[in-house]
Structures are given as C-alpha cells and as structure tokens.
C-alpha cells in the first residue's frame, strides 16, 4: 500500500520543541492552569491542599461530573446542549434508591444486603437513564424540537419525577455493596493499585509504540525517538505518580481498629493500610477510555464530529443524523445513570436535591475543557480536566474559607474567562 | 459526431417525469433527461431554474414527489444519499459538502470509512489511499493532517473531487465544479472530466459558463422555471442558441432532440 507514498516532500521542518513533541498546546494550557490552581491553594492553605488526603477527596468529588462531561462533549460537538443531566441523574438515583430500599426488599421479598441488590439496582438505573436519553434524542432528532427546549423541559420533568418516585423523601441506607462504588468505602488497596498503575503504564506505552509502528508502516512522518521517549516518560510518571499519591493516603487507625473489632479480632500493633485507587475512579478511567475510543476510532465518533463540523455535509454523505442524535443522547443518559451510582453511593443516600446544578457544572467542565459551542471540536480528556479544574477551584476556595456564594461567583467568572481565552486561542491558531 | 439516440442502446441513466414541489412552488416539473456512458450532459438554466433540485433528487438529498429513475434500464430506488451511493452515483456539490473540522482522508471516506478487523476506523489506511488518489488528481496536495478549513479553494475542490472519483462512480454529478477556481485549477477539472469520460462514466455537469459547456459537454439540457426547455446536441448549435434557450426558453431550429 505504502510503496508509492514515500514521504518525499512532506514538510519536515518543525518549528519548536512543542511542535516536535506534537503536544496539543490547548492541553498544555489546561494542565498549566490546573497546576497554578493547585500551587496557589497549597501555598494559601499552608500545604493542606496538596496532601494525599485532599487529592484523594478531590478525585472522588470530580468523578460524577467528569463522567457526565465526557458525554456532554458529544452533545456540544454536534451543536446541541443538554440542560437535563442533573435532573436525569436524580431520576436514575431515585429509581436505584427505590429498587434497593423498597421494590426489591418489600415487593419481591429480597433480603436486605443480598448480593443481587446492587447489580439489579444499577441495571434499573442504566436502563432508565439510557431510555430517557434516547427519548430526548428522538424528540430532538426526529421531531426537530431544539435540544435546548427538550432538555430544559427535561430538567423540570425529571427532577420532579425523582421527587414523585421517592415522595420527596431521602432514600437510604443504600445497599452496602452499592456504596463501595461511591469513593472512600470502596478502594483497591495498595497492591492492586500498583498493579493497575503498572498495567496502565504498559498499555499507554504500547499504544504510543503501536501508533509509531503504524505510521512507519505507511511511510508517514514520525517524531524523533527522543521525543517519543520524553512523552512516554511523562505519561508513565503521571500515571505512577497518581497511584503513588492515592497509595499514600492511609486509613485512619481508629477506623482500622473498629473494622477489626467488628470482625471480632484484635488489631496487631503498628498495623497500617492505605486506600489506593477508589473503584469510582476506576469507573471514570473506563468511561474515559471507552469514550475516547468512540470519539477517535469508531464510525460513530467520526460521524459525531463530521455532523458537528457540517451537518449538511454529514447528511449528504449518507449519515443518518437523526438516529445519530438519538444515539448521542442515549449515551448521555447512560452516563447520567453511571454518575448517579457514584453520586448517591458517595452520599450514601438518595436525596431530593442530588445532582442539582450539575447540568451547569457539566457544561462548564466540557467548555473549559475546550469543547466549542459552535460545534465540531472537543476532547474527552479536556472535559475531564475541565471537571478537575472546576472541582479544585471549588474545594480550594472552601478550604481557605471562601463562603459558598463567593465560590460560585468565582466559578462563574472563571467559566466566562476560560471561554474568552479559548476564543483568543482559536483566533491565533486558526482552528 | 453525436449519434441518433435510437442507436445508442440502453442509457446509463434515465430520469423520467421528475417532479418536486416545496409548498406551492413547483421546483421541478415533469423533467426527463437521459445519460449514456462516456457522455457529458450539461444542465443549464438561470438560478432557480430547478437544476440543483433535479440533481439532488438523483443524489438522494431530496426525495422526489413523482418520476422514475432508471439505471441501465432497471428502476432504481433512491430515497436518500446512501441509496444513490449504492448505484454508484457520486456528487460533487457546489458547496463541496466537506466537514471543515476533519482532514482530507476523513472527508474522502466520510460515511464509508475503512475499518480494521475490530471494526475501528483505519486512519492510516485511509490516509494512504487518500495520498494515492491525490497523487493522481492533484500531486501538489500535501496537507493531509490539516482540517480542510485550512485548505485553499482549489485544494478543497480536490478533496471533493477525489471523494467522487475514488469510489468508482458510474454516474457523476458535478454542480458548478469550477465556480470558485482559478484558471489553472479549472483546466485541471476540464482534463479530469475528459479522462473520466474516456473511462466510460456518465457525467451531469451543472454550469453557467457557456464556453465551458461548449468545450466539455456532448449534449445540454436547459431548464427554465422548473421545466425542461429542451435538450440539444452541443456541437450542432451556437452559443447564442443556448443563450436563447436559457433566457427566452426558446428552442433552436436544429440540434434539438
């Protein structure tokens, strides 16, 4: 295939080091902003911000919004919007809460604590979320009602369907196995976290090597070896560093002692245990991987971006843009259900106001992460980084004692400012 | 020399009594056009004469209200762009219909991506194929990793043309392919049309440039207010005859089929 395509006259000049490394400058900017936020708050709080404990908390607080933000990328890329994700999360959470605390034990006579409860509840939530999302997509794609209106209506409807289901009451306590997916009550521990970290590093390096091999096989230009090594090194250091931090957060001795007492044993002297990677973060990693593959390596993803870039061209190319809209909103609905699992498990209850204002946080995360509201551009990693930036701002301010209303003012200003910077960036680079 | 139609065997394409209205406006009324292999038929008329609507019915972009499409004498069922592609009908739209945020290869294969055995899109293979076809059509083209928004008008046109050519079109619809091009690029398109014609493709060419129609087309069908004025053998009529058909809706005395 490649014989005739020797890269005889490809532009070989590379302007600077960033060019050579082929690093997205936008990604670099976001990482830069994140690092600045971390350092500023760490100094401000006298070193309390960048502790394993706080980083652990920051991570588990980010998961729910980050999961939904990956789906919001697809929605915004196709020039739509979804204002209903927070309300949809509440409905999924209410369905799951009712399944666990009422329907299964009271109507079907399943014993509380049975291992079947959590999987059934999650299945119910996922089906509900996906179905509602697909329904939104049908209204938008086939009946051509604007997404803004459909999901604005959805915001009212689903928030109150949730209220109706639970009769406005807090549902709980939720199933103990279910709670493991919320964060602190379900973690991998030290060894499993390290194994995960090493596997992830190996996988990332393999992907880099594979991409290089594929380029070589087709005779396309490649980066110099030192550039590949540098990127590989940074990736490996980031993954393993993250695992190391989470593995440095020790379970408080008092909690360990209580666990031992409950098991009817005596805690050995000097016994310690660490949390490691929470299951909820594992879920986010899987979601991020799958969504990235969908975005970059599947026809579905290609059609999403093509439709965002030029809806008419997509249609003329034979893409069924109506069905595509249904698929996109179904994906968002599915992700809302997954987020509902994490969010309600973290709270240990289904509450009436769960997910309130999440739609705005999710949109903000996607937009701060570089998703263009004019459509056609956006990345999954950007949205996750956007969610992380928002969450660090918010928890940082909480730690230094900024009151809630002022926190929201700052977040709002940052959102507008971030989009302005993005506009300037696009003008500069012509993207 | 053009042959009498009765000697030419089954047409590659027959559009019979095509009709399309939007609300109360008859965009295309009762238009019939034939196309034989290795032939270029010009579709002419003022803006709003119905040329583009007629072509969009053939390419599946608009469902037709009435009329028949026959390909090699067999009735073709074209309800959407996907159907048209199945019959090897390719279209180069005036707007080019490119997704500006994607690169040349993604645009060329849009809707027909090459996939790996795992079902994932095979970008490397698609880029290699794109380089191959570009080497043939526009060897100067080298910007394979740029979103097409960053390309010049001529380069964008190359992408749109290569998309139509790559998939072995039998019927090619070109909607003002040279409207936005410079002299050199226009010559390139003209050469390409001759080359494709020699390969036995049937080409429908919407064009406003009468010189070009005279140079490139075998026959020309003129439309006015949604109706077909007539179809003429191009080398049997003058440019003024064709202008008369376009402006006055009047057929010349000779050369009409």
Automatic annotation (TrEMBL), chain A:
Per the UniProt record, the source organism is Aliiruegeria lutimaris
Q: Briefly state the protein's biological role.
A: Part of the binding-protein-dependent transport system for D-xylose. Probably responsible for the translocation of the substrate across the membrane.
Arranged from A to Z, the UniProt key words for this protein are: Cell inner membrane, Cell membrane, Membrane, Sugar transport, Transmembrane, Transmembrane helix, Transport
Where would you say this protein principally sits, based on its record?
membrane
Q: Which CDD domains match?
A: TM_PBP1_transp_AraH_like
Q: Which InterPro entries match?
A: ABC_transp_permease
For this record, the Gene Ontology CC terms, alphabetical, are: plasma membrane
Whether ATP-binding counts among this entry's keywords is: no
The entry's protein name is Xylose transport system permease protein XylH
Where exactly are the transmembrane stretches of this chain? 27-44, 56-77, 83-104, 116-134, 140-158, 178-209, 229-249, 270-295, 328-349, 361-384, 404-425
One of this protein's Pfam families, by short name? BPD_transp_2
Q: Does the keyword Glycosyltransferase apply?
A: no
Localization per record = Cell membrane
The way it spans or sits in the membrane comes to:
Multi-pass membrane protein
> Which Gene Ontology MF annotations are present?
transmembrane transporter activity
From TrEMBL, chain B:
Give the main location: membrane
Q: Where in the cell is it found?
A: Cell membrane
List the CDD domains. Answer: ABC_Carb_Monos_I (cd03216)
Q: Does the keyword Thylakoid apply?
A: no
Keywords, sorted A to Z:
ATP-binding, Cell membrane, Membrane, Nucleotide-binding, Repeat, Sugar transport, Translocase, Transport
Xref: InterPro entries: AAA+_ATPase, ABC_carbohydrate_import_ATPase, ABC_transporter-like_ATP-bd, P-loop_NTPase
Cellular-component GO terms for this entry: plasma membrane
Any Pfam family matching the protein: ABC_tran
**Which top-rank group of organisms is this from?**
Bacteria
Q: Which GO terms describe its molecular function?
A: ATP binding; ATP hydrolysis activity
Q: Which SUPFAM superfamilies match?
A: P-loop containing nucleoside triphosphate hydrolases
* Mode of membrane association: Peripheral membrane protein
Task: Identify the residues that the record assigns to the ABC transporter domain, covering every copy.
Answer: 13-250
Name assigned to this protein: Monosaccharide ABC transporter ATP-binding protein, CUT2 family
Its lineage opens with:
Bacteria, Pseudomonadati, Pseudomonadota, Alphaproteobacteria, Rhodobacterales
């Amino acid at each position: 295939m490649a014989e005739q395509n020797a890269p005889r006259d490809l532009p070989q000049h590379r302007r600077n080091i960033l060019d050579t490394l082929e690093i997205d400058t936008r990604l670099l900017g976001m990482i830069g902003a994140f690092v600045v936020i971390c350092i500023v708050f760490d100094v401000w709080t006298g070193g309390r911000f960048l502790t394993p404990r706080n980083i652990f908390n920051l991570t588990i607080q980010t998961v729910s919004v980050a999961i939904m933000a990956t789906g919001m990328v697809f929605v915004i890329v196709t020039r739509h919007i979804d204002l209903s994700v927070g309300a949809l999360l509440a409905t999924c959470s209410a369905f799951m809460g009712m399944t666990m605390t009422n329907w299964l034990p009271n109507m079907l006579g399943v014993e509380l604590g049975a291992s079947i409860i959590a999987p059934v509840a999650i299945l119910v939530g996922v089906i509900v979320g996906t179905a509602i999302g697909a329904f939104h997509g049908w209204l938008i794609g086939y009946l051509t009602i604007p997404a803004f209106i459909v999901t604005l209506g959805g915001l009212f409807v689903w928030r109150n369907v949730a209220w109706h289901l639970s009769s406005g009451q807090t549902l709980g306590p939720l199933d103990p196995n279910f709670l493991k997916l919320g964060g602190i009550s379900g973690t991998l521990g030290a060894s499993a976290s390290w194994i995960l970290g090493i596997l992830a590093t190996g996988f990332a390096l393999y992907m880099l090597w594979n991409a290089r091999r594929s380029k070589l096989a087709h005779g396309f230009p490649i980066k110099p070896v030192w550039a590949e090594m540098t990127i590989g090194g940074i990736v490996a250091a980031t993954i393993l560093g993250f695992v190391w931090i989470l593995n440095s957060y020790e379970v408080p001795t008092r909690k360990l002692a209580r666990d031992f007492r409950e098991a009817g044993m005596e805690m050995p002297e000097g016994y310690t245990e660490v949390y490691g990677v929470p299951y909820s973060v594992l879920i986010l990693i899987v979601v991020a991987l799958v969504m990235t593959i969908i975005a970059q390596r599947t026809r579905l993803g290609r059609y999403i971006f093509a439709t965002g870039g030029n809806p008419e061209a997509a249609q003329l190319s034979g893409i069924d843009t109506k069905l595509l809209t249904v698929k996109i909103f179904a994906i968002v609905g599915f992700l809302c259900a997954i987020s509902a699992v994490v969010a309600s498990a973290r709270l240990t209850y289904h509450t009436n106001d769960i997910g309130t204002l999440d739609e705005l946080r999710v949109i903000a995360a996607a937009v701060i992460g570089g998703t263009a509201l004019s459509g056609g551009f956006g990345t999954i990693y950007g949205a996750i980084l956007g969610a992380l930036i928002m969450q660090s701002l918010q928890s940082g301010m909480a730690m230094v004692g900024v009151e809630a209303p002022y926190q929201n003012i700052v977040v709002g200003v940052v959102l507008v400012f971030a989009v302005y910077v993005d506009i300037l960036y696009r003008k500069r680079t012509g993207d | 020399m053009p042959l009498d139609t009765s000697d030419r065997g089954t047409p590659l394409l027959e559009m019979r009594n095509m009709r399309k209205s939007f609300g109360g406006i008859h965009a295309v009324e009762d238009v019939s056009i034939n196309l034989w292999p290795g032939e270029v038929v010009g579709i002419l008329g003022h803006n709003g004469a119905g040329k583009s609507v007629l072509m969009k019915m053939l390419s599946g972009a608009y469902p037709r209200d009435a009329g028949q499409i026959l390909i090699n004498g067999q009735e073709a069922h074209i309800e959407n762009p996907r159907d048209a592609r199945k019959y090897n009908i390719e279209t180069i739209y005036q707007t080019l219909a490119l997704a500006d945020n994607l690169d040349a290869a993604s645009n060329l294969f849009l809707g027909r991506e090459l996939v790996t055995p795992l079902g994932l899109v095979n970008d490397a293979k698609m880029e290699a194929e794109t380089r191959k076809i570009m080497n043939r059509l526009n060897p100067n083209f080298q910007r394979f990793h740029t979103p097409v928004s960053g390309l010049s008008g001529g380069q964008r046109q190359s992408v749109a043309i290569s998309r139509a050519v790559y998939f072995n079109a039998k019927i090619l619809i070109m909607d003002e392919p040279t409207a936005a091009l410079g002299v050199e690029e226009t010559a390139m398109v003209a050469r390409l049309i001759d080359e494709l014609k020699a390969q036995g493709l049937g080409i429908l060419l919407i064009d406003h440039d009468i010189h070009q129609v005279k140079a490139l087309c075998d026959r020309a069908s003129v439309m006015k207010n949604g109706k077909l004025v007539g179809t003429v053998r191009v080398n049997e009529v003058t440019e003024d005859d064709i202008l008369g058909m376009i402006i006055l809706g009047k057929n010349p005395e000779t050369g009409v089929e």
